[in-house]
From TrEMBL:
Pfam families for this protein: ACOX (PF01756), ACOX_C_alpha1 (PF22924), Acyl-CoA_ox_N (PF14749)
Organism: Chrysodeixis includens (Soybean looper)
Residue stretches making up the Acyl-coenzyme A oxidase N-terminal domain: 1-28
One Gene Ontology cellular component: peroxisome
UniProt-recorded name of the protein: Acyl-coenzyme A oxidase
Active site: E317
Residues binding FAD: T34, G73
A GO biological-process term: fatty acid beta-oxidation using acyl-CoA oxidase
Record keyword Disulfide bond present: no
Length: 551
């Protein structure tokens, strides 16, 4: 995040100085925004940067324990510079949070600079190869030029000048990383399902009739139900990530031309897609582990590591709930635009036809299911706005009414995001397979239908509320879904092979291409230090005395 922030928040002159040094690794940096007391609520950060015109420096301070920076990757022992987000004070006025480039260690000795307190935050659920750190300042001075001045400036005399056209321009790196994380979620989920599907083709368990041989566990319908949604979701996330990247690039190009009109929609999209993709990837990676039984619990399966790594993405760069609520703000505004007869931006344009007051006629075709997801999102949004307004009418403030409605707001944002993802999944497959062979088209369409049927069956309660779906329609959809799993089964291993992930990347005894699962598990077990000697010294120190009653 260090380099993207240098690119996004520095003036051209600052970039010319800092970027070559960072890209050449002459300096190593990190992004220190979160504090012990605040991560989500950026406006509540407590670190201060107070401008002193006498010396033309900013004085950095950590006034409380909770103001200590906490979490930044590599901060503890690796980096010598960091971007510190701090409350800017000049001429006695606080201008809110701004980013600063701060040298924290000597470039030669690597000793922390006087006035800098830095250390490691300790072991975590995962990410233990990263030295996430804490950081505090005691009247530590940095040059005025170290304020990142693309979006706001402090002149030599201390005058504050706002440059950016958008109030949240300094949040740009977060938007960029959220966009990247959708791709990251797809990649890691593809790894997990490659491991679990390959293993399920090797693993045999139980024989339906006592005479016959044991079945590959991949032949069980329940196993297919666990795993094929993982493959389908990996594709859904990958295609949505490509689409989101294009939306991001287009918005960035527009901003460079001085047009910030599409930023709110990008923020709403990157927020909900980051939230849903990381949450889905984490829970489906855990599902892949379940699908591998006991061996999935081994570190050598690679799955615990993947889970620990990916579950953090649900939290960092904006917690799941918080980001869905950001999307919900955008949706409520879109609702008001529909009421006022104003035009809508592309990803919410479906709302303009959705508030008919009638249930959408159920249609089980893929297009029909996408329309149903849209109706569901619109229906949830409409009920949420009703709740919000009822609470306002009862005399509550907007903030109070909003807070009481946040469970529903999150539900509406999740439904909207699922509808957007489904629509993109379909249109990206159509776009990308124009020249593909019929077989490739068929397989990709099967996967995309698995995604639609799976989520329709997961949301039958909502569909009953907002569409005319009947009990027999649900029964028919369930049978269709189960039939689809059987159609995919013969190609399942080929489909995950097509992710083209090398053994070195999978790093799994269960998921290697050669399928030598048992040999690899045994070879990994031999690496346990406990296998280095026939009798461990703890036998003599503790077990034997205990057994002889001498403890
Ligand atoms: C380094 C990774 C690089 C690449 C990733 C690729 C691969 C990953 C591979 C491996 C990963 C390895 C290592 C990475 C590990 C960890 C990195 C983690 C880094 C971090 O976590 S950095 C810290 C991130 N912190 C957060 O995300 C904090 C979340 N909080 C917020 O974003 C905000 O506080 C907020 C949005 C919740 C609220 O902000 P606010 O209080 O200032 O605003 P309001 O709620 O009042 O809203 C006002 C208004 O502003 C709009 N808004 C808010 N944010 C934005 C934005 N970003 N852009 C545009 N507009 C924004 C909001 O919608 C409101 O608008 P409205 O019109 O008034 O409704
Ligand atoms: C592995 C890892 C690496 C990280 N790397 C970095 C880094 O490099 N740099 C950096 O600056 N930060 C980093 N972070 C910090 C990360 O960005 C924050 O942890 C994240 O933004 C969540 O903020 P928080 O911890 O304050 O959670 P909190 O906001 O305290 O969340 C706690 C709970 O409260 C809920 N909550 C909070 N506010 C509200 C609200 N308004 N409405 C409803 N519910 C609410 C949340 O949904 C959550 O359930 C990292 C974190 C992790 C786990």
């Amino acid at each position: 995040m260090f380099v993207p922030t240098l690119m996004g928040q520095c003036t051209p002159e600052q970039q010319a100085y800092w970027l070559p040094r960072a890209l050449d690794m002459q300096i190593i940096g990190t992004y220190a925004q979160t504090e012990l007391g605040h991560g989500t609520f950026i406006r509540g950060l407590e670190t201060t940067a107070t401008y002193d015109p006498e010396t033309e420096t900013f004085v950095m301070n950590s006034p409380t324990l909770t103001s200590y920076k906490w979490w930044a990757g590599g901060l503890a022992k690796t980096v010598n510079y960091c971007i510190v987000v701090a409350q800017l004070y000049t001429k006695g006025v606080c201008h809110g949070t701004h980013p600063f480039i701060v040298q924290i260690r000597d470039e030669e000795t690597h000793m922390p600079r006087p006035g800098v307190k830095v250390g490691d935050i300790g072991p975590k659920l995962g990410f233990n190869t990263a030295d996430n750190g804490y950081l505090g300042f005691d009247n530590y001075r940095i040059p005025r030029d170290n304020m990142m001045m693309k979006n706001a400036q402090v002149l030599k005399d201390g005058t504050y000048v706002k440059v950016a056209r958008h109030g949240k321009a300094t949040y740009g790196t977060m938007v960029f990383v959220r966009v990247l994380l959708v791709n990251e979620a797809a990649f890691n989920l593809a790894k997990a399902c490659t491991i679990a599907v390959r293993y399920s083709a090797i693993r045999r368990q139980c024989s339906p009739d006592s005479e016959g041989s044991e079945l590959q566990v991949l032949d069980y319908s329940t196993q297919q139900h666990k795993l094929f949604i993982c493959i389908a979701t990996a594709h859904a996330l990958q295609l949505n990530s490509t689409w989101l990247w294009k939306t991001f690039s287009d918005t960035l190009a527009a901003i460079k031309q001085g047009n910030v009109d599409t930023l709110p929609e990008l923020h709403a999209l990157s927020s909900c897609l980051k939230a849903l993709s990381t949450a889905d990837a984490a829970s489906l990676i855990e599902q892949c582990r379940h699908a591998c039984g006991g061996h999935g619990y081994m570190m050598s399966s690679g799955l615990p590591y993947l889970y620990a790594f990916v579950t953090a993405t649900r939290t960092y760069e904006g917690d799941y709930t918080i980001l869905l609520l950001q999307t919900a703000r955008f949706l409520v505004k879109a609702y008001e635009q529909v009421e006022a007869g104003k035009p809508l931006t592309p990803t919410v344009s479906y709302l303009s036809q959705a508030f008919t007051g009638k249930k959408l006629p159920w249609d089980s075709s893929p297009d029909g299911i996408i329309r149903a997801f849209q109706a569901l999102a619109a229906g949830k949004l409409s009920s949420t706005v009703k709740s919000l307004r009822k609470r306002l009418e009862s005399g509550l403030s907007y903030e109070q009414a909003w807070e009481l409605s946040t469970i529903q707001l999150n539900g509406a944002a999740e439904a909207h995001c699922r509808a957007v993802m489904s629509q993109n999944y379909k249109s990206e497959i159509e776009r990308l397979t124009v020249n593909s062979s019929p077989n490739v088209k068929l397989v990709l369409q099967q996967l995309y239908k698995v995604y639609l049927y799976y989520w329709a069956l997961e949301r039958t309660g909502d569909l009953l509320l907002y569409t005319s779906i009947s009990e027999s329609d649900i029964f028919e959809l369930q049978l269709r879904y189960e039939g689809l799993l059987k159609e995919i089964r013969p190609n399942a291993v080929g489909i995950v092979d097509a992710f083209d992930l090398r053994d070195e990347v999978l790093h799994s005894a269960l998921g290697s291409y050669d399928g030598n699962v048992y040999e690899r598990l045994m070879a990994e077990a031999q690496k346990s230090p406990l296998n280095a000697e026939p009798v461990n010294q703890t036998f003599h120190t503790y077990l034997k005395p205990m057994m002889k009653g001498k403890l």
